[in-house]
Amino acid sequence: MSPAPSPAAGIYVCEVFSAIQGEAMLVGERQVFVRLAGCNIRCAYCDQPEALERHPGPCLLERRPGARDWEVVASPLPVGTVVDAVWTLWRALPHHSASLTGGEPLMQMGRALELATALHARSIPVMAETNGTLVGAIERIAPFLSYVSMDVKLPSVDGAGVSMATQRAFLDTALGAGVPTWVKIVVGPATDPSELDAAIDMVAVAASGQPGSPPPVVFLQPLTPFAAATTAPSPEQVLGFQERALRHYRRVRVVPQTHKAIGQR
Ligand code: SF4
């Protein structure tokens, strides 16, 4: 492992790799994933526990797309090193875009902005996969994003305590900036229907307030059992959730985490 740079000089990254996007609008597309470390909330079903904290440690950089031939370097690392790692994969295979994911990628705002700016300058479309809570951050980074995949959190499923007003402000900001944006809502056996109604209504009102932007598609994502504490909703529940949502808003699809169904990273 190479010597650790000063944390002030770098960005905390868990891994950079090429994989198949398994969720929501870009499902099936090949992307370069940059998993940034650190998250500002704690969802009950989180399947990336190793990405929740920002601390010095190993970072995995894939060298050939899909080969999982990791080079291990020390995180935090210079933004330029991350850009080079993405570029190496990008040049080796046609990819759709790069995904800044996490953790919460907008949490390291200054460095994430540098990274998005550099990728944008190389004509790599950048998607942010975000929990939709950091409103000031999305405002700053939006000009360098091609897509926003935003979670809307339901307290009965996530237990993360995210306010709907904050999520509305985030969605308004992304749509107002003209970035193609969609919304992902994880649903589980304990989903409170009234919370789902409120979330769908929030999206519908936000969409109606942005007549110049295509209305965001809402993706209901059935919870994938990850640990003993998580179970999937029943098929009947999923049908019921979509039916309920469609009565409030027309653009509602159900897409599970397909990468997990096919054993992908
Ligand atoms: S927002 Fe994402 S990374 Fe953060 S705790 Fe929730 S599921 Fe995990």
CATH fold group: TIM Barrel
| CATH class annotation | Alpha Beta
Quickly give the CATH architecture: Alpha-Beta Barrel
Helix amount: 25-40%
Textual characterization of the structure:
- This protein has 265 residues and is α/β, with parallel strands linked by helices.
- The protein is built from 8 helices and 10 strands.
- It has one domain (7-261): Aldolase class I (TIM Barrel).
- The protein has helices at residues 79-92, 109-121, 135-141, 155-158, 164-176, 193-208, 235-246, 258-261, and strands at residues 13-20, 30-36, 57-62, 70-75, 97-101, 126-130, 147-151, 181-187, 218-222, 252-254.
- Strands 4-3-1-2-5-6-7-8-9-10 form a 10-stranded mixed beta sheet, with helices on one face.
- The longest helix is centred in the last third of the chain and has 16 residues, at 193-208.
- Iron/sulfur cluster binds next to loops.
Give the topology, please.
Blueprint: E1 13-20, E2 30-36, E3 57-62, E4 70-75, H1 79-92, E5 97-101, H2 109-121, E6 126-130, H3 135-141, E7 147-151, H4 155-158, H5 164-176, E8 181-187, H6 193-208, E9 218-222, H7 235-246, E10 252-254, H8 258-261
Parallel strand pairs: 1-3, 2-5, 5-6, 6-7, 7-8, 8-9, 9-10
Antiparallel strand pairs: 1-2, 3-4
Iron/sulfur cluster (SF4) is lined by residues 39, 41-43, 46, 48, 51, 102-104, 131.
Task: Describe the structure concisely.
This protein is of the alpha/beta class and 265 residues long.
What key attributes describe this structure?
265 residues, alpha/beta, TIM Barrel, binds iron/sulfur cluster
